[in-house]
Amino acid sequence: MVRNRLEEEMKENHPFFDRPLFVLRRDNRFRKLCQLIVYSKYEPTKTDPTTGKPIQRKYKGFHDLLSMMTYLEWIMFFITCISCISMMFETPWPLDGSMLIMNNEVLQVTEFIFVTAMSMELLLKVLANGLFFTPKALIRDFGGILTVFIYVTSVIFLIWMPKRVEVHSGAMFLMICRCMRPLRIYTLVPHIRRVVVELCRGFKEILLVTVLLVLLMFIFASYGVQIAGGKLAKCNDPKILTREDCVGEFIQYVHVTKLNVPQKNNQSQPRINPRNCNFDHIGNAMLALFEILSFKMWTVVRDVIIDRLGVLAAVVIHVYVFIGCLIGLTLFVGVVIANYSENRGTALLTVDQRRWNDLKNRLKMAQPLHIPPKPPESAKTRLFLYRLTMSTYFKRFFSICVILNSALLAIPWSSEEEMTESKETLKALVALCAILTLLFALEVIFKIVAYTPRGFLQSRRNKIDIIITGLGIAWCILHFAIALPANKIKDETYTFGYIIVVLRFFTIAARHSTLKMLMLTVLMSMFRSFFIIMAMFLLMLFYAYAGVILFGMVKYGQAVGRHANFRTPMNALTVLFRIVTGEDWNEVMHDCMRHVPYCNFNEEANFWETDCGNYYGAIVFFCSFYLIITYIVLNLLVAIIMENFSLFYSSEEDALLSYADIRNFQSVWNIVDLEQKGDIPVARVKFLLRLLKGRLEVDPEKDRLLFKHMCYEMERLHNGEEEAAKKFLKAAEKPDSKLAPSSARRAMK
């Protein structure tokens, strides 16, 4: 309200306030046309022209996804994705630079398309909303600045297209800035933009914790410089005891294999100091302590200090690990989780409000049971099979069969295994798997007869079961009727067989209500974490592109090698994913810090013609990536998972509706919903209310007036239309609703 009032005052007092480029008025037809193009978007809901009420549509999630962005933003999203895919083919290998954009016309085409499309997009937005100092200006926040920066660097690079790119030159810096193109998606997709905003809102607290850890590192680094500065180096020639004499070459005994092959008993080796971390000055000491903060190499540093300075000097490393790693990093995790809770608003909720919020999340996971009604007494066979399939013993028996079926993969299923001593064991396991597959087929037949085919296929779990069972029967025919007699395609049938066994194991979660609820919790966590994972992937893509330019041709070393390198963006993504898991990221960093005289460097050569790394660039690159991804983004994922699993493991006594109440509602709804559609006519609501038990129970005798009022309320809300299960359950527990039981309304007071 305040913002709108200020905008109206500015429009009245300053006639050029809402004029893009000080030319187009608010009522200008051309400007309205540009606004129509910029803001046109898909409408997910349709209204009935007669009643004016929204029409229920299938695949609501898909329609909501289409309406997430405007048509213009969707076009730019796909063009940006195509451009990012094109950048994945840019690599400094081979050495002639033929796969770099300045030497490849195909890659230049996608670059031209991206720049042209972005030029048209920004021109339309400027004409519609203005560039500066308008209510919806293009540059009104950091997202607008990032968009303009990406556009300007792309235009300059496309016009310039330098053929020579020397190391540490302006052209190389421009190529690194061009690598920020995946971050353009941050400003296009609102959900990803919201993730970044949530992270930035807690920037102050995260910065304070970071400063605290840096001060802690500085204190220990200063102490380490005083006690270990210049004292940890040791020549690889054990006869040399001083740093000044550690030059030249020496003869070293070399024997690295036990094979009976001729070898040289000695080898000429250069005298060098190991590249282990050191405390020679404050910079190296801070870098070493940051590596220790990630639980990397701290035992190596401790052992080196013990060897050079004694046991007492290594106590400081243990103290630093305890304070910095076990307390400081835990504080970091707590700050990120607390900021996430505050940004979502859950941290400020009272106990009763939190219960209500948990209840809404539980109701999102509640699904109709999709159990067909009981057959009539006249259909004795169907009735017998219905009671059999609904019995607890029947369900437990087939749950045990699924577990037993999964245990059959104890030994490899392959034709090579038939040549070993476990041949008979393999045949027995495969035969037992075929028997279990026939039992699963029998289970499906029983359920189809008991529920009828239409009733059986109403459940997603039954659909998955019949698909897996059909594949299992096909495997039995292929393996026992074709492969074994002909002694052909055994490897293929073995592979097909164990894939079906693995797929069968995943159905165990749907056979138990608690496991099913846990699986739904995991799926909900994955869905809510999807945009965070996407934001993390886009950030990794930016670092991968930059890593190819900075370290694409670095000489192989201890960690950088044939399997871990930055030769291509795909290899760089693999290395960065490895760094996300914390696997030897510091070793990769040290290899990328390689400099003269340990590599070939020429100031006039292109960056792809030298095998040197970038000393300071590697420190900034790897430390910033590890800090952002490991300490911030991954902790945000932890916060989301903790929130969802705290809902699953919450106390039943504290909940407004327990899982037993929700289960009772599902069973009652299944009785009333004869067509098993998930919707019932409003006329059946009174029967539903009479059958409910537990906290949702309404006594028609004691609460006669409340019962009538609830039926009238549902009739008024839906006007004789059908009512969905989730909508009714939410309305029944809404505190301010007339349908809510007194317990829910009292809880929110």
TrEMBL record:
Single Gene Ontology MF annotation: monoatomic cation channel activity
Residue ranges constituting the Ion transport domain according to the UniProt record: 70-343, 392-652
GO cellular component, one term: plasma membrane
Region listing for Disordered, in residue ranges: 730-749
Primary localization class, coarse: membrane
Location(s), subcellular: Membrane
Gene3D superfamilies on file: 1.10.287.70, Voltage-gated potassium channels. Chain C
SUPFAM superfamilies reported for this sequence: Voltage-gated potassium channels (SSF81324)
Segments crossing the lipid bilayer: 65-89, 109-132, 144-161, 206-225, 311-338, 397-414, 426-446, 466-487, 493-510, 530-554, 615-641
Membrane topology field: Multi-pass membrane protein
GO biological process: positive regulation of synaptic transmission, cholinergic; positive regulation of synaptic transmission, GABAergic
Keywords: Membrane, Transmembrane, Transmembrane helix
Pfam families documented for this protein: Ion_trans
Name of the protein this chain belongs to: Ion transport domain-containing protein
Species per Swiss-Prot/TrEMBL record: Romanomermis culicivorax (Nematode worm)
Phylogenetic lineage: Eukaryota, Metazoa, Ecdysozoa, Nematoda, Enoplea
